[in-house]
Amino acid sequence: MVVRRRAKRQTGRGLQIDRQSGETVVVSYFGYREDGTATFYQASGKVTDGKNFVADLLEYQNGRAIGGRSRDGELARNVGKVRLTFNTESSGTITLPGEKQQNVSRYVFDDTRARLRNRFQAVMFESSYGITDTLKGLMNVKVIDDDFSAVFQYDGSKEYCVFSGKLVATGNTFQVTKGNRVCTGDGGSTPTPYSFTDLSVNEAGVLSARGSYGDVLSGVCVRRTKDLVATPSWDQTNRCTAEDLGLSSAPAN
What we know:
Blueprint: E1 2-3, E2 14-19, E3 24-32, E4 38-46, E5 52-61, E6 74-88, E7 91-95, E8 102-105, E9 119-126, E10 133-144, E11 147-154, E12 160-170, E13 173-183, E14 192-193, E15 196-201, E16 206-211, E17 216-222
Antiparallel strand pairs: 1-8, 2-3, 3-4, 4-5, 5-6, 6-7, 7-8, 9-10, 9-17, 10-11, 11-12, 12-13, 13-14, 13-15, 15-16, 16-17
């Protein structure tokens, strides 16, 4: 993560936060001392209330150097308390010892929206209006700049839903905000507000997202056809290639 207001100034300081699905968090801070030399500090502890973290920020010394002999590091000093409050999985605020509260957000190395521009064999676990249902179909996704649109056609049916909205990067996932859903079976196709959070496609082409009303979307990338709305067929044999997902190909031997 980086301190957001300084992210473009290349100050060379930041945080690495490791949380492995539980409450325990390890925070590593890398930055500089007053004399300009580089240093790192570490803190560990548990998140409370699902979003708050407070722990001692510690500096170590005399550990093993690269290429050096094995030896244990030792505590040099306690710098003070570090306080983190997460407002999303990839952003929040931090208060470092002796500093004011600042915004932080995950630094994104790659723009992964190219992975979204594909066709997916998808399942929607729908909980809208208190009705639980499981819908299978093909979802064709388009992303033009920050405009998101997707057509989800159900297997064995001519009915489909169209989702649209603004795509917003949130760390290594996306949100679709200011969105709508229009479905052919919704009596006159009236748009209803709809959004996605935690939208992502990983390196294997696996799609996942959380929709409005408690809906959950999951799927796999399959080779695109020329049709915007493809004929539904539950067949995962034609999986997307690395090129389809915007990934670098392995070098030839």
